[in-house]
């Protein structure tokens, strides 16, 4: 739909939706419904992402249109295989939307994703977009057209690129749509053993509880046999890790369930008699405040300097001490605090500490969350020269 007036109305409607305080599932469904009238597609898959790792965490998709595809295949392709227009690459690109046809110079069959996930269900055109704001990616969207339709064009690319920061804002805000104080359950960790094809081989009682919460987090729309995207993501990366000297860095992702609790999901490939097996152990546990701090800070949209001020407040520094440590005037510190209070929705330092980090301070965050390398891992901080 390239009519200028109709496109302008559709864009305005989508931007308005993106700036409401809907949960991420409602937001994605509503935006996709309106976007379909604008861009015109036959199927879509839309994920939230953990901005620290770029792992896909939850999905809203028309899976019935991809009967040949599996979640395990999708995650293997995204994290383990060479391919075109990876979401982590789009998140860093100047234009965060791209066509598979253009990336492959008109030969989409060069793409493993096309051969394994699209063509078997007769989807031949793909348009991808990463939703990034303030340097953090909060969503990943893929639109598809069937073989009997013309492909997407550059006009469609520009439309999605234009919408990307608005959609990122909406997904970021959705993390805080509900009260941060969830109905906390027992602080129980759980273990899942996944076989070669991603099927559950064994599960502990604690993991079964968290699996129910993860299923409820998507409105019960996950079939009983399907696990959360966050689990498939970390398992796929763990399975593909190359052996090397020293301990391996465990792939991990953070995801929030409907109770308001944050879970930390991480995985490792199992060994037997010193040899790697095809089984993966996935651990699920309740995330501690120091583990979810980076996500929460970004969710509130704090700038780097505001983050520095919040860190100092959580360490108990006075206004004068903050000013001295950050080389600012006390008046500037007060201005930053006012901005933080407005974004978080509190009116005092005490409320700030109680609302965001109710259990402990933020000693592990240091000078900010580590940057990401090209393959999605945390980049280790370098020592100053």
Automatic annotation (TrEMBL):
<keyword id="KW-0805">Transcription regulation</keyword>
<keyword id="KW-0804">Transcription</keyword>
<dbReference type="InterPro" id="IPR029016">
    <property type="entry name" value="GAF-like_dom_sf"/>
</dbReference>
<dbReference type="GO" id="GO:0003677">
    <property type="term" value="F:DNA binding"/>
</dbReference>
<dbReference type="InterPro" id="IPR016032">
    <property type="entry name" value="Sig_transdc_resp-reg_C-effctor"/>
</dbReference>
<dbReference type="GO" id="GO:0006355">
    <property type="term" value="P:regulation of DNA-templated transcription"/>
</dbReference>
<dbReference type="InterPro" id="IPR036388">
    <property type="entry name" value="WH-like_DNA-bd_sf"/>
</dbReference>
<dbReference type="Pfam" id="PF00196">
    <property type="entry name" value="GerE"/>
</dbReference>
<dbReference type="InterPro" id="IPR000792">
    <property type="entry name" value="Tscrpt_reg_LuxR_C"/>
</dbReference>
<protein>
    <submittedName>
        <fullName>GAF domain-containing protein</fullName>
    </submittedName>
</protein>
<keyword id="KW-0238">DNA-binding</keyword>
<feature type="domain" description="HTH luxR-type">
    <location>
        <begin position="295"/>
        <end position="360"/>
    </location>
</feature>
